[in-house]
Design brief:
Strand order of the largest sheet: 5-4-3-6-7-8-9
Shape: globular
Strand content: 15-25%
Order of helices and strands: EEHEHEHEHEHEHEHHHE
Number of strands: 9
Oligomer: single chain
Largest sheet: 7 strands, parallel
Distance between the termini: 39 Å
Length: about 270
């Protein structure tokens, strides 16, 4: 199995039948020999991206606060996947997780900052505790994971998982939207600063994907109908829809790209 230049998996019985041009195109998406760390990887988007990286040839450390869950996910993914415990709201834990991943993998080339939390609340009901929990996880945690990774990387790439709330005001999601908007600003600033270190920093903005984090919205059928009406492609995202974009931004295929924020949203932002 190899990763093809149209961001799909190809099962080839006779790889020798590929043209030389096709082989060259496929090679730039290949992550063989790359060492990656994915946070929030016990389930949902993080788990899907970890699976995609392994499928593209990378050795991957899955990190989460829930060590039993992330161990099960690593075993399910197989390949060179391993599990690490991390609490991204704790700077010491961020540093320890990066050090452990780099030691066990033999280095670190890729960091995907995916760990995130959300809780729906009217703005007038947001408490300091709720604000700090969301912002510390989604923004502070991403920064200190990135900082820790940059200290051990010899070049490489960092991919932050932002959100359409970085681009649109969503009622009852003010702490979350604020954290994800901050993550976009952080992505661009780090990209500008760390380019000289050979580290590229980009972000993905998933559109409407059904995960444990967003399940509360999908319980409302009226909400589902309203959201689908805003998606030109006429469907909600599937987790596998994010894999190709992530591997593109983590591979040599995007070697001259840094500081971008790529929506994966079925055209939602285009239709605004």
């Amino acid at each position: 199995m190899i990763f093809a230049n149209d961001c799909t998996y190809l099962q080839l019985d006779n790889p020798a039948s590929l043209s030389q041009k096709t082989k060259m195109n496929i090679a730039i998406f290949n992550l063989e020999g790359k060492r990656a760390l994915v946070t929030g990887a016990s389930r949902g988007i993080g788990k899907a991206l970890a699976r995609g990286l392994v499928g593209a040839g990378a050795s991957v450390a899955l990190a989460s606060r829930h060590i039993n869950e992330v161990q099960a996910s690593a075993e399910e993914i197989g390949g060179d996947a391993l599990a690490i415990e991390v609490d991204v709201t704790n700077v010491a834990s961020c540093r320890a997780a990066v050090a452990t991943a780099a030691k066990q993998l033999g280095g670190l080339d890729i960091l995907i900052n995916n760990a995130g939390v959300e809780q729906v609340a009217a703005s007038l009901d947001v408490t300091e505790e709720l604000w700090d929990r969301i912002v510390d996880t989604n923004l502070k945690g991403a920064f200190f994971m990135a900082q820790s990774a940059a200290r051990v990387m010899m070049g490489g790439t960092i991919l932050n998982i932002a959100s359409l709330t970085s681009e649109r005001g969503i009622p009852t999601a003010v702490p979350y939207g604020s954290s994800k908007t901050g993550l976009v600003g952080m992505t661009r600033a780090l990209a500008a600063e760390w380019a000289a270190r050979g580290i590229r920093v980009n972000a993905l903005e998933p559109g409407y994907f059904r995960t444990d984090l967003t399940e509360v919205f999908y319980q409302n059928e009226d909400w589902q109908k309203a959201m689908l009406a805003n998606i030109p492609m006429g469907r909600f995202g599937q987790l596998d829809d994010l894999i190709g974009a992530a591997i593109f931004l983590c591979s040599e295929a995007s070697s001259y790209i840094t500081g971008i924020v790529l929506p994966v949203d079925g055209g939602t932002l285009a239709a605004i």
